[in-house]
Amino acid sequence: MAKRNPQLKLFKPNEMAFGGTLMTTRKGRSQPRPLSTKHTIHLVLKSSIATGELSFTRAKNREIVERSIDSFAKKYFVAVLRVANVGNHLHIHIKLGRRHFYRSFIRALTGVLAKRILRINGAKLSGKKFWDY
């Protein structure tokens, strides 16, 4: 009996990562991953600068983080299921109400968090970025 060839794969397997440094090549920019309003998103916001006085777990910074997430979630129809504040990064589990508001939500949240935490602590970046990616 002749050995059968395995079935050919007609579709490429889905990539499990998107964004960040993967977007530096032309190949990575071809098609963005679609956002779903049915499924949840695990969002990680990391800052190497957020240590010591700038840590997200400090009392005044924690309050800024919580208020900012709540206010922008209401404004941009994002359901925040869970937030884990780890000090130098945040894990946010969200579900989008409307897909086109995701970009506005992320831009507003990251911009306001960086600006308010730096201003309240009187820190200056001197050419560095607050967020890692």
Q: What's the SSE blueprint?
A:
Layout: E1 40-46, H1 59-75, E2 78-85, E3 89-96, H2 102-121
Antiparallel strand pairs: 1-3, 2-3
How do you describe this structure in short?
With 133 residues, this protein is α+β, with helices and mostly antiparallel strands.
Textual characterization of the structure:
The structure is a single chain. Helix content is 28%, strand content 17%. The longest helix has 20 residues, at 102-121. It has 2 helices and 3 strands; from the N terminus they run E-H-E-E-H. The protein has a 3-stranded antiparallel β-sheet, with helices on one face. The mean pLDDT is 84. The radius of gyration is 19 Å and the shape is elongated. The chain is of the alpha+beta class and 133 residues long.
